[in-house]
Write a structure and sequence with these properties.
Number of strands: 12
Low-confidence stretches: 1-8
Distance between the termini: 48 Å
Oligomer: single chain
Radius of gyration: 25 Å
Mean pLDDT: 93
Structural class: alpha/beta
Strand content: 15-25%
Length: 300
Amino acid sequence: MGNKMNENIAKTILVVDDNESNIDMLLAILKGYDVIPSTSGEDALALIKEESIDLVLLDILMPGMDGYTVCQRLKNQPDIQDIPIIFITAKSDEESIEKAYDLGGADYVTKPFKPKELLARVKVQLKLQNVLKELDFLATRDSLTGIYNRRKFFQLAEKMYSEVSNGLYALMIDIDHFKRVNDRYGHHTGDEALKNITRTILQILPKSSLFGRMGGEEFAVLVKADDQTQMMEVASLLQQKVNETLINIGDGSTISCTISSGVACKQEETSSLDSLLRQADMALYKAKESGRNRSIFRNV
């Protein structure tokens, strides 16, 4: 997590206010953060799509698009709806404040600004955002390897399956004879093997791939490729690099593992994500049955 100063510098705050003197004041108060100023709602929405924003300080009364509308637009977009919004306003009546919260605002600060109060509210929202991100990570990641757990993999895979019509491949991967590693060298070595092999696979897979641990020593991947040849080259490279991955067994010596994988491609007749993964799983079974340490493509 780093120290507090490093956390502050890393955080980017978007300040939206049509009054430039207010913006100057906020820049001075928030000097420990990376602050991006904006003088209109339209510009703010464009900036949020371009920049990585951690928090928005949003004026309510602005010409053109007011703060309420900006907030509503943000909360309607899944990829940015979790960014916390603190309204900054001269309005302190209950109706205005209630509307701010109803639209998804996290907090509000009234003008004229009290620097210590503003800073405190900003810190609370950023800290809360960190906690929520950590909880989300814990809920969606495999605790040992850090890649997606089964539940999150399937959630994201359904979306990827529906969005990609051509060149979508499923890859089921199994570490060969993994039980022997645990039995002979202990579960600590088995855990190290899982972590090291996962790291190797992550380095090889294209960035757009979806990679999850299904349980034990079995993994699933959804990956986009130009054709079967390219996909099988990826599978072959994974085999080679995993076999070159060394696992320390605790006495200074090392071992290595091999993997088997099954590959299937989404076709017009593929009825569902489950069907695609099932085809890849059948190919994996054939790879293991044929002697392991190989990749087999399933022709539907």
